[in-house]
Amino acid sequence: METNPISLTDKINKLGSDDCHNQVICEEKTFNGVEITKLSKSQMKKYQKMLRWQARKADKRAKEREKLRKRKIEAKINNISLGPSRKELKRKKMIDSNCKISVVIDLSFDDLMIPKDLAKLIKQVLRVYTENRRATNPMQLYVTNFNGKSKTEMEKHNGYENWDINFCEESYINIFPIENLIYLTSESDNIIEKLDHNKVYVIGGLVDHNAHKGLCYRKAVKEGIAHGQLPISNFFSIKYRKVFTINQE
């Protein structure tokens, strides 16, 4: 695999929060292709803003590492498992999992969401990925219609291309047999009591469901695929309309 050159972000992440600002100024000669000494007033403001952001990021990561260190010490004292290590996670692939249930996150609703909701959507996808990676038997996870605004938002997360997710630009209709697809939607009258390893469960990647009530259900009907809902109300006390989110636990 080709090795990428160390980026500004990588450099700052290796620095302590106290000296990252000075280190960057010394090492970086340009900003957006322009020499630092030749930056305009507005460009200099952006450059300084970027430096502050990188410093905050480095400080945040340092605090997270310290928090993790304390958790490990506490877990060792109390004989508590923290789950698989990073090395174990790298070795474990969902293709080798005993769980063959396929779950699709349908990202075909980009144009219906404002940037803030798109960011929330991608955070939900990240949460699903994290939980799936740490599962004893991870499910087969797909992200379809992966193009447009949601892909642009995802690209803010460096290295996502290497994640153990099947990213697909095309629709799930073109990937799986139509008879195997089941769209999960709270508007469906079909209650799914047991998951079938031969089926593919589709979740609509849509934040702010209240503004688009029934959209996923109508899409399933239009495409001629089966639909259903999980018995969420059997496990949660919900006093308002049920909405199935991507990272529903």
From TrEMBL:
Catalytic function, reaction form: guanosine(9) in tRNA + S-adenosyl-L-methionine = N(1)-methylguanosine(9) in tRNA + S-adenosyl-L-homocysteine + H(+)
Keywords: Methyltransferase, S-adenosyl-L-methionine, Transferase
UniProt-listed InterPro entries: MT_TRM10-typ, MT_TRM10-typ_sf, tRNA_m1G_MeTrfase_euk
E.C. code: 2.1.1.221
GO terms under cellular component: nucleoplasm
Matching Gene3D superfamilies: 3.40.1280.30
Domain named SAM-dependent MTase TRM10-type: residues: 85-249
GO BP: tRNA N1-guanine methylation
MF terms (GO), sorted A to Z: tRNA (guanosine(9)-N1)-methyltransferase activity; tRNA binding
Protein name: tRNA (guanine(9)-N(1))-methyltransferase
Species the sequence originates in: Agrilus planipennis (Emerald ash borer)
